[in-house]
Amino acid sequence: MTIKRVLTLALAAAAANFFSPVLAEELATCGQATYYPTEYTCHNDKTLCPTQYSLPTKPCAGSGGCYPPEQFSCGEDGVLRTLPSATSPFTLTVWGVRSAYRNQTVRACGGYLAIGANARQCHACTAAGGTNCGVYRNQTVFLTDGRMASAVPGHQYWYINPRDGLLAYTPALAPSALPPAANSTQVGWNATTPITYPTVPNQEFAGLNVKIHENGFFVWDKEGAMSHWWFACLVTLPGGGVSTARSWRIYAPVIPDKRDCELVKIVAKAQVDERAGVYKYV
Ligand SMILES: *[C@@H]1O[C@H](CO)[C@@H](O)[C@H](O)[C@H]1NC(C)=O
Ligand SMILES: *[C@@H]1O[C@H](CO)[C@@H](O)[C@H](O)[C@H]1NC(C)=O
Ligand SMILES: *[C@@H]1O[C@H](CO)[C@@H](O)[C@H](O)[C@H]1NC(C)=O
Ligand SMILES: *[C@@H]1O[C@H](CO)[C@@H](O)[C@H](O)[C@H]1NC(C)=O
């Protein structure tokens, strides 16, 4: 099965639970047209642009269409240009239809990157060895070179697990840790590096990597087939129950038929101070 086929199936599967009817919403008018404000934004009483994943799109004069400002800028010439790659530390925010996770900041805890009321931010610092713990803070900050903004020797990396697409981060690695591709159990750990996974049985997962637009989408790239969307998957308790304070883990759509998942987009908020991070994410 090619990756294109996998993605098509994923979209179809996810779309099935994704669209639900808008109940009792008032119609608004835009020029001669009527629209639901949760679905469109009216620009200059003239142009309707659709809301996608709860993010409004904008008209680009001259191009005739609407565009997501998290992916493109619209030039005076009416030409859309892809946003530049991020160069500064960033946080991640998730956008989707469900209000429980709309505009939710991604937090690191227990090796997972998750969102929702029950998604904790877990970090530690011990003053042993003269570490000044007072200079570290508590946000989940990512660096564009693949590391987490933690100060522990050997570094921590965010990565996509090539087997199931899970967005995760490593524990503090030994300072002498081998480069990513050399260790078949931690192959993914610099997610900004395109690598192949010769030891992973399913070759379809080869070459995962992530692109980060400056104040724009956090994009998963599979052999040039960019995916601008991710899955937010509800964490269930052992036995299958769901806690009232919910959390969702985030997956790249490498497996199309994930249960209890919904489509989301992830936006990287740039120009975050690296020192807003922690000593060590645990
Ligand atoms: C998203 O959350 C941030 C910080 O909590 C807030 O400043 C911003 O206005 C929110 N954006 C929207 C569109 O709700
Ligand atoms: C970070 O620390 C501040 C101040 O102690 C606290 O208000 C905030 O909730 C913490 N944030 C996280 C994500 O733990
Ligand atoms: C991660 O990979 C990128 C792209 O190959 C590279 O520029 C960056 O230095 C790597 N990060 C680390 C910490 O080695
Ligand atoms: C690969 O990573 C695993 C898990 O962190 C570790 O136990 C193992 O020693 C590493 N192997 C090599 C060859 O570095």
From TrEMBL:
GO terms for molecular function: carbohydrate binding. The keyword Ribonucleoprotein does not apply. Keywords: Signal. Residues 1-24 form the signal peptide. It comes from the Eukaryota. InterPro entries: Eng1_septum (IPR018909). Residues 29-76 form the Endo-1,3(4)-beta-glucanase 1 carbohydrate binding domain. This is Endo-1,3(4)-beta-glucanase 1 carbohydrate binding domain-containing protein. The lineage of its organism: Eukaryota, Fungi, Dikarya, Ascomycota, Pezizomycotina.
